[in-house]
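Changelog-adjacent note: as of this version, every example in the card shows the full chain rather than a window. The one below runs 323 residues end to end.
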Amino acid sequence: MTNGSFRFLGRESESVASFEGVGFRAAVNNASSLKGNARVARVSVRDRFFLQQLRSPLRYDANGLDLSQISAHVGGGDVTGRFTMQPETEESPFHVEMKFRGVQADQIITEAGGPGGVLQGKLEGNMKTEGKTTDPDALAGSGEIFLHDGQLRQFNLLVALGQLFQIEELTQLHLDQAEAKYHLTPGAVAIDELVLRSANIHLSATGTVSFRGKLHLSSRLAINEKIRAQLYKPIRANFQPTEEPGYSAVDFEVSGTVERPKTNLLEKVVGRDLKDLVNSFLGGKSDKPKKKKGAQTNVDESTPAATPGTSASATAPSPANSP
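Full-length structure tokens:
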């Protein structure tokens, strides 16, 4: 076979997986077994995850289908793994093992439909998955992801607060630790633990990301006393002591979709009374209803923020004289 293509659709005719540029060459040993090599130019999983130049030896016999030494490229990095399936067995069970390294975090996020320029660094991790081709709800598995040389940039709210209170670290976090542990559930990826840590700031979350991109994350922003001391007193009061000595935190929610995430972090950090003040500083408008339509729109916390070099930081009042 040369230059073949396949597409697998879900129950509602949505794209589950597609394979383009498929090539296969094999030697047929007998009527029930063959050995050869397979290659696929491009693999798309739910139009959110993309593999390039997949290759592997292939064997098919009474034990099933075995792609024993998969190699591919994803997000500028490398993937290795193995795929086995028993197509002659009831419900056609399959098993996947995968390891990846050198994957560009920003590229993976943007290919999945998320905002670019937010997370920089290289990803490394692993995944083990098993399921049944006849039952999408039977998918199960787990994995880990680690981010090396990580930086969290242009996180709209943190950048704005960094400009407002002249705290440079908030505008661009250099991550000392960045990792996630997850497992698969029917229709979603369950985040068991997501941790982003810089020298003075910790972000953590648990929750789910559905295969359709919907987010439901319970999250926490924790800061140490060095950062907390630079905040205005009303805002400091919103950060409560945690079980980790020297840190205080606010809990918040992340919802929406991968393409347009939403969060109530602004209200949790600055409080409901100061939310309109911060919105006006950011160029938005009050949440309170007005008789006349304003020319500006509310600040969208889900979109990338302006870079730290904007004039906002130059005009922001210093928190040093906070009551």
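Structural remarks: The two ends are 75 Å apart (CA to CA).
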